[in-house]
Amino acid sequence: MKSDTLAATPASAPHSGRRALIASFATELFHRKGYAATSMRELASVSGIEAPSLYNHFSSKETLLHEICFGMADAFVSTAQRIAAMDLPVENRLARAIEEHLRLLFSDREAVGVFVNEWRHLSEPSLQTFKSLRSDYEQFFAGLFQEGMQQGVFTQGDPLWLGRQLLLLMNGSVHSTAPLDEDAIAQLGQRFFNLWMGGVASRPAQIS
Amino acid sequence: MKSDTLAATPASAPHSGRRALIASFATELFHRKGYAATSMRELASVSGIEAPSLYNHFSSKETLLHEICFGMADAFVSTAQRIAAMDLPVENRLARAIEEHLRLLFSDREAVGVFVNEWRHLSEPSLQTFKSLRSDYEQFFAGLFQEGMQQGVFTQGDPLWLGRQLLLLMNGSVHSTAPLDEDAIAQLGQRFFNLWMGGVASRPAQIS
DNA sequence: CAAACATACGAACGATCGTTCGTTCGCGCG
DNA sequence: CGCGCGAACGAACGATCGTTCGTATGTTTG
Description:
The structure is a homodimer of 208-residue chains.
Chain A: H1 3-6, H2 8-12, H3 18-33, H4 40-47, H5 61-84, H6 90-107, H7 109-117, H8 126-150, H9 159-171, H10 182-198
Helix pairs in contact in A: 3-4, 3-5, 3-7, 5-6, 5-7, 5-8, 6-8, 6-10, 8-9
The first copy, chain A, binds a DNA duplex (30 and 30 nucleotides) through residues 3, 6-7, 10-11, 14-15, 18, 39-41, 49-53, 55-57, 60-61.
């Protein structure tokens, strides 16, 4: 019947990246409309199938969110571990951390948007695990600032506060529209690094 | 029957701030769980009434969101206009803008959280109006940076980018747990101002 | 060729959604 | 006293939610 025409397209991609495709559609929807406001039927619609068929690829709606959030979380922490192991001056490690964070961020801005804004819809115990990973990553940045302060490279302050603020700042880039190429990302990293290290004043600030 | 006991409590507050109370409960729920994930029945439950009774005070769920978002938006833009009219050096106006923004932010962190994160669930034409107000506020900060650059007080850069980043940074404080008193807010303002003007480096950054 | 498997489907489940309706009840005002 | 009105309620509406089930079909494997 209609299976000749309808099944033709799916069959043309035997067991190909259909699952990954659905995940990327889900990422876009979760990012643009939010997890709670996205229905499985809508996800199915943009995926070109019916809602029940989604469950041949993912066991639940939350599984989709889980994969997106933990996929990004794992990428961030493993990058952090790689940089932490580098034998470089602390300010260079910070510059590297900024650049790598931005690189990861711009590799999939929508996934990062979900990672940043929708993780709270995870349920236990995943929620606790996620928070733990997130805390690890914050601690990595805090550690850089603390180390820099001990060496006198950075001015004194609350390292954890500085780390969180820096992450907050960079993550804001998920809202930008245009994708950035490799060079533009490196330049943006410089921009963040310079702002963070030197501020915006032409001379040291002097206000009571 | 039960009306003797049930109606007693509501009657004790004749036509008092019931409406405002519901709005504040809604703010807390929208902030903690998100607009889409908050049901009218849950809001009614924490308000101590049944769901249909909510419609004696608000004509729809979105009306609640509308009031919260535009309440904050109006407060922010009117503050901006007040500061813009001040006869002060641009860096002092920036410091004032930071402090007043934080003051407003900490006057109701939950409402700001909704203002920042849940506005996208507004529908047209409110959505366009909101974006316009938001843009006005960003332009106010961008204007400060641009003015500072023309005077040579700030280093050159993209003023709109700087403005958005600064707002992003400050708005992150909605996630902090503890409320801050007047002095603590002023100190935090100084902290932001110093970070923004002078960065974190003990000496000017020097990395290729 | 047949059995097993992956993947799609329509139908439908119970739950919950935002909201409407008709009604009741108590308070304040004439 | 009586009358209206704000504010509450239970019942219920249609819609939509995430998900399950039985089934059909096409591909892969033995």
